[in-house]
């Protein structure tokens, strides 16, 4: 294995662990009432923006940073909007979902969003790919079927919006020529959107020190740095590879929820995960075979 391939594997693994880490951290903070969802989202995006601006300042001059990041661009604004929608819906959804269910719905929707984007772009799906889509949706339906411990429809809808936004954000990253600059611009311009959320905060006295620390950690490391790494590896991955790789995130997040958040791994989650991930994997492998 070449050194270039090893670097790609290493940084891709870091990005995937960061995605799973965000799910675990968000659930830890909100599930234990360490912060409210609006405050967590705001601190997360602000911390991510500060971390990325600092990284750019260390590698470039202040004038260069100002010219490349602060100057608004259409792509940067759209990236910021998608990032904000993903982050705020992600946090609100985790008020009603456990770590495994939330990550399963999020990345299931992400893959379907990427598939349908390809269809809109003129890609012709085969019967096996549609079978995979049907299997994935069946898994999600089973997960949400009325039963004890089943996630709420409100949580599902919020995570649905979050997944669509992240799927489009990922697709945009495949054309990124300057990953750090583009990610910094996205985070920086998401801050004005996030600041009004602080008006929803019931009272800053409800913020715990642990909650703020975890929110800053989530924003600066698993979000800001993690997403910059993801934008760095995306140009080296095909859309199919990027989709398949993200299928590991719900499993990582569910494992993290069991280990760090004391959650149980239910039979319903295992069966629905097998259906959703199996369906999406079928879609991705079939499309990859057609590209060869």
From TrEMBL:
It is a multi-pass membrane protein. Pfam families: EamA. InterPro entries: Diverse_Substrate_Transporter (IPR051258), EamA_dom (IPR000620), EmrE-like (IPR037185). Its main location: membrane. It is found in: Cell membrane. It comes from the Bacteria. Keywords: Cell membrane, Membrane, Transmembrane, Transmembrane helix. This is DMT family transporter. The chain crosses the membrane at residues 41-58, 79-97, 103-121, 128-147, 153-172, 184-201, 207-230, 242-262, 268-286. The keyword Translocase does not apply. The lineage of its organism: Bacteria, Pseudomonadati, Pseudomonadota, Gammaproteobacteria, Lysobacterales. It comes from Marinicella sediminis.
